[in-house]
Amino acid sequence: MENDIRIYVEEMPGQRREIIAPTDMGLSLMEVLKADGYDIQATCGGMALCATCHVEVLSGPALPEPEDAELDMLETLPVVLEGSRLSCQIRLTPRTDGLVVRLAPTGA
Prior knowledge:
Layout: E1 4-12, E2 15-22, H1 29-35, E3 54-59, H2 68-74, E4 84-86, E5 100-103
Parallel strand pairs: 1-5
Antiparallel strand pairs: 1-2, 3-4, 3-5
């Protein structure tokens, strides 16, 4: 479809799974990952209040800088990686086509 993009989830080093996601529904990366069966708790429902949707952005297009609420929540994590983001705060648009992420390890 013309409004679809491809997101890649690195499940193991060198092994990436492609997800086709629509950009015309205003979905977040968290919503698409959950719908595709990934174990993301998202206990706050996407409000940047729990950090249970933590992902590491490995490569792809430049994303908008995180807002203060996201940065504050990332600071509460025991392990923050260089590409750490909350997937609930990443809106899927045509510009996010080709994004590569890895789910943060449990407890990270």
